[in-house]
Specification:
5-stranded mixed β-sheet, alpha+beta, about 140 residues, 2,3-Dihydroxybiphenyl 1,2-Dioxygenase, domain 1
C-alpha cells in the first residue's frame, strides 16, 4: 500500500529547513515539486526511504520555537521529552540515523533507548518541530 497520510509542516524559513532536514535527518527534496512565490517556498516535497513530507513557509507563520519564546502556555506544553504534535519516522538503522542527526547539530530531547517493541530517539529541528525516529525490535509491533 502506498503512503496515505502526508504531513504538511510549516516553517518560518522553508529553504533553511530543507537544507537542515537533508543534512541532519537524510531527507531528499524533489526539486521538481517545489513552488515559490516572491522568493518564498509555498510548497516543497521531501522524501526519506519512500515516505514523503510536504513543507512551506505560510504567511505570518510562527514556529513552535517562536511560540515557546512568546507564550508561557506553549513553553509548558513542550516542557517534556515527548513528541507531542510531532512526527514519527521509521528508519532502517536508527543508531546511524541518530549519529547523523547529532553530527548535524540536532537537539536530541530523548536519547536512543528501547521501549515497548521499538528502539528510538527524539529530536527537535532548528524551528522546534519534534521528530521521533525508530525501528521496531525483533518481535515488536
Amino acid at each position: 500500500m502506498s503512503q496515505r497520510i502526508v504531513p504538511f509542516i510549516g516553517y518560518e524559513d522553508a529553504a533553511a529547513a530543507i537544507e537542515w532536514l537533508e543534512r541532519a535527518f537524510g531527507f531528499v527534496e524533489d526539486r521538481d515539486a517545489r513552488y515559490e512565490e516572491n522568493g518564498t517556498i509555498t510548497h516543497a516535497e521531501l522524501e526519506l526511504d519512500g515516505a514523503r513530507i510536504y513543507l512551506s513557509t505560510p504567511a505570518r507563520y510562527a514556529s513552535p520555537r517562536r511560540l515557546r519564546e512568546d507564550s508561557e502556555l506553549a513553553r509548558r506544553a513542550y516542557d517534556n521529552p515527548w513528541v507531542v504534535d510531532g512526527h514519527f519516522v521509521e528508519v532502517d538503522d536508527v543508531d546511524a540515523h541518530h549519529a547523523r542527526a547529532v553530527a548535524a547539530g540536532a537537539t536530541v530531547i530523548r536519547p536512543l533507548e528501547e521501549g515497548p517493541g521499538m528502539r528510538f530517539y527524539s529530536a527537535e529541528d532548528p524551528e522546534g518541530h519534534r521528530w521521533m525516529f525508530g525501528r521496531p525490535l525483533a518481535g515488536g509491533r
